[in-house]
Amino acid sequence: MMSKKYIIISPILLILLWAIVSQLQLVDKFFLPDPLTTLTQLIELIKSGIIIDDVFSTLGRVAISFAIAVVIGLPLGLWLGSSEKIYRSFEFVIDFFRSTPATALFPLFLLVFGITDKSKIAVTAFAAILIIIFNTAHGVMNARKSRVLAAKIMGATKTQIFRWILFWESLPQTFIGLRSAISLSLVVIVVTEMFIGTPSGLGRRIIDSQITYEIPTMYAVIILTGIIGYLLNLIFILVEKRFLHWNGK
Amino acid sequence: MSIAISVKNLKKSFKNTEVFEDFSIDFEQGKITAIFGPNGSGKSTLLNTLSGILHKEGGEFTIKDFNHFQFSYIFQNYRESLLPWRTNFDNLALPLQIQNKSKEHIENKVKELQKLFDFNFDWKQYPYELSGGQQQILAFMRALVTEPKVLFIDEPFSALDYENNLRLREHLQRYYMLFKPTILLITHNIEEAIHLAEKIAVFSQKPTRVIEVVDNPLPYPRTVQSLKSEKFHQVKDRVFSIFQKAANL
To answer: Does the pLDDT value for residue A52 go beyond 60?
Structure first.
């Protein structure tokens, strides 16, 4: 596998650049600790178990939000996509809220759901639902006509066409939606954790270490959050490759 | 002689082009009729109208005992009508699944057809793992697995190399002699038309009319040998002269 060899080049370059910048003191050491200090701090945080609690809090919230979004968004997307007329009727609302930053709505959700996990999960699920609906519905609507036509000529009922053709045709686009939704869920959860009323979570840890000027900790947790986001995306790509074996062929 | 498909005063146009103004033709039951004519002479439009994909603007047609479960249509773009998420076996089974047939019934039918076609697929593979020619054979078998009484075929052999082309013609004949369906075959290949068909309907340019229906009395099965026979060449010359006039060559 050629591509695997090349994947490590850019992170190495980035760390090298970081090392050079901090070695030459181009940026004040206080604002940008060197890579070694930061990575040592990261390992320390993991070893001592302090950060593990935060990781699980954040991942737990992401998982619940995402699960809610899938359970609601997937069937809605399939239904809306099954008829162009239905989709067009709802298109404006979907596009409007999809274009509104979910984080802008958080204060509103705080009012409605209170300063608990509920408001974080609700706003995140809301944002993720819209992406899932949008992609799933478009997947169904853009299904190739030739296959549907072939099934119609064979005498297939609407239900059969939906179950055996449209659903499968929509899957590649649906998966794009799911992948975007999980990434967005992490983003929104981490941001909302920075607000009051959160005892633990990666967002909480980042903002706390910034306020108390524990800058190496701040960088370490940012990097950890990045790694988690990357891995979540990677898991989806791997599942996609296995499950949608025909995609692009 | 009984008529299976009867078209009377058919009218159909696209935007500003009149394809059929006042088009009439009868197709005999249990015979292979080749439809031969210049580009854009409305050959596919006729089959698409008869199968209900396109709507007629006037006139009438009847297909004796028409029933979606006993009708098959092999499209020109067969590749896009196979389902890449289904294995080869499940692709072949699709029309029977649509008819809610039992698993045993489906397995038996597939076995029968496989014997007739003398062609062994890896049934657990997927269509995208097959060559273009094999995909075409699969699409053919899928169309025949329901034992249709009426079969429409639009340029079935164009993607095949000559050797596989001849082989598939032989399979089709074998099937035809066993089940005697009414077959309408669109082709651009004069040899193909005469090899397979008992009647060759030569169409004019738009607005389309039937210039002549040429009889082809060669007995079935027509082997590769019969392609060299005197009679074959007589029919071919006849069709060719009519076509020459039709296409203004």
So the answer is: yes
Q: How is chain B split into domains, by residue range? A: 3-67+149-246, 82-148
Query: Domains in chain A and their CATH numbers?
Result: 33-243 (1.10.3720.10)
Report CA B81 to chain centroid distance, whole Å: 15
Q: How many CB pairs under 8 A join A and B?
A: 55
Q: Could you say which of B77, B80, B98 has the minimum Cβ distance to residue A151?
A: B98
Q: What confidence score (pLDDT) does residue A1 get?
A: 52
- pLDDT tens digit string along A98-156? 999 999 999 999 999 998 899 999 999 999 999 999 999 999 998 888 899 999 999 99
Angstrom distance (rounded) from CA A122 to CA A59: 15
| Spatial contact of A209 and A215, defined as CB atoms under 8 Å apart | yes
**Does the domain formed by B3-67+149-246 have CATH 3.40.50.300?**
yes
Residues of chain B with pLDDT under 50: none
The residues of B whose Cβ lies within 8 A of any Cβ of A are 51-53, 67-69, 71-73, 75, 77, 80-81, 83-85, 94-95, 97-99, 126, 128, 146
* Block residue for tokens 């002479």: B41
What distance in Å separates the CA atoms of residue A175 and residue A23, rounded to the nearest whole number? 43
Q: Whole-angstrom distance between the N-terminal and C-terminal Cα of chain B?
A: 35
Task: State whether residue A246 sits within 8 Å of chain B by CB.
Answer: yes
Asked whether the whole model's pTM tops 0.95, one would answer no
**Residue B15 and residue B13: Cα distance in Å, rounded?**
6
Give A31's DSSP letter: T
Residue type, A205: R
Contact B53 A165 (CB under 8 A): no
Partners of B71 on chain A (C-beta within 8 Å) are: 153, 155
User: Is B81 in contact with A249 (Cβ distance < 8 A)?
Assistant: no
